[in-house]
């Protein structure tokens, strides 16, 4: 999208918000002012965080209004900065392992990929409520908290999000004080990281915050290494008593070895396959060929204004540019003594332009309270993708053939063909939505609907095939909340989401997907939320999610195939917060069941959904023995799961035990030790195909030192 067109859309949105403001209901309450949205909250720099609990009171992303979580008719898990620091995590994937109901995918060794409620996605990621859908590893150096919103979310977020979405909330400037925090860490694999968090008021009305990090990556795998560099300056203004503005930029550069794990063995018509034994640390790729590189630039501007105590508006524009390359040589199949490899490389360049405007009115109509949201969103996404196929040896074979499983694989020389795929896709989306949170006292309603005009045009520059399609979809949401007490809510929620038939990355249409109706997700959920205290809360939810006209991953090729329809059901329960003044915890359990409900090329009806363990349990707890010394203990358990919907290869159940020690040496200096996998268990946390299976980290220790000034 050109700057001129983007500016035109921005001006149109401003005009619409102004018009809505002029015509807003006159019954607005003068007593209740809306809380500021996340982008202007300006939280303190959290360096030690023992004074902050793991529980979260509110979040704006589930409703686009600042709403107590107890009044949100949806399962929401929040990982705040305190918990992230206590667990010593630096990436999104590491953080999500402690969220039951979220299963980490391998992502072909070069991206974040998750399965939520049985729905696999590489694109349902957001930053400050705006889409961040490229395929890469998302860092947490500039993240204040991570919000995991489960179930269909199209009313708020648009297309996709059938099983849930993950939203990173960025750090913002503090206008009240200067602060500087520095951090250094090193792990027993040899990886290390440096980080800086600096906040500086430039005047009474202007503040600057800069977060930066550099990481050198290492793991137990034979050939793995890499590095990550990130920097994120954010400038905030108070433009008078009623207006605030934020300018933010995040740069991320990631380079690492692309590793798709180990193959399986033993799968047959009568026997389940299992990960190939004896090769836990073995790298089935080519050092120097297997590589992933991504450079991401995300720039965002946000303006907020309060017209009155009851009426506010915000306008956000974002530009995101992603430049990515990765190459993969990986196992295609194996026996007890041999393995066969294949491979390819791919490059993707994507530019995303987005503008979103929201108007929020809080007031009364008689005795009934309202929080009314009206919004517009426009998105333009341009993607260019290339792919080349790997060839082996002087004969340019498409596979290596069977290689003996020697300590060092005798892999023929790798070369790449001319481009087998060269595509361009242009996506244009215009959206409008309205939502009302109605408060009758004992009873509350959250009702809303979104309209999306989704258009995609693609061209295959290899064969000249060009296609266009458009989808105009309504995405409703209705939630009912009963509050017998102020600290207890019982809710039911119905929501529908859709996903156009060109994959969640929208790279190219073919003759089939150009004519297929979008996938549809229908989510029914009922739950309970109980805040025992202001710092300790319990949540529980039952759900059923039906997906129709679905596509799934082929167990052999990893490509998408039609799979008719599926259903997943589950139960989730979580407890988070401060149990005593010195003891806080985050506990969770999920029971999940899901199956294909139609025969497909990938398997018959009744096959269990891929990467959907029946049981998941996680626990993280921290106890402070004194003002200076504390300890943490964590446990993650996951029952067996199938690698793909073929149901031919099973990843065994596993339990991992983690621990931490905390030392606040002085007011300015703290030291922390995090130990992962204390029992040195061997486990297989994720897979991409039946023959691309990741191995879990063995026992390792990470030491972190923190300074604040």
Strand elements, count: 40
Stretches with pLDDT under 50, minimum 5 residues: 1-51
Strand content: over 45%
- Largest β-sheet summary: 22 strands, antiparallel, barrel
Cα(first) to Cα(last) distance is 43 Å
Secondary-structure map:
Elements: H1 3-22, E1 58-59, E2 67-68, E3 76-80, H2 81-87, H3 92-96, E4 102-104, E5 114-116, E6 119-121, E7 125-127, E8 130-131, E9 143-150, H4 154-157, E10 164-170, E11 179-187, E12 192-201, E13 206-217, E14 226-238, E15 243-256, E16 264-265, E17 274-275, E18 291-306, E19 311-334, E20 338-365, E21 368-392, E22 403-404, E23 414-416, E24 421-439, E25 443-460, E26 466-485, E27 488-499, E28 519-533, E29 536-553, E30 560-580, E31 583-596, E32 615-624, E33 629-638, E34 641-642, E35 650-651, E36 654-664, E37 669-676, E38 687-689, E39 692-693, E40 700-708
Parallel strand pairs: 7-10
Antiparallel strand pairs: 1-2, 3-9, 4-5, 5-6, 7-8, 9-10, 11-12, 11-40, 12-13, 13-14, 14-15, 15-18, 16-17, 18-19, 19-20, 20-21, 20-22, 21-23, 21-24, 24-25, 25-26, 26-27, 27-28, 28-29, 29-30, 30-31, 31-32, 32-33, 33-36, 34-35, 36-37, 37-40, 38-39
Task: Describe the protein's architecture and organization.
There is one protein chain. The chain is mainly β and 709 residues long. The strands form 7 sheets. The protein has a 22-stranded antiparallel beta barrel. The chain is globular.
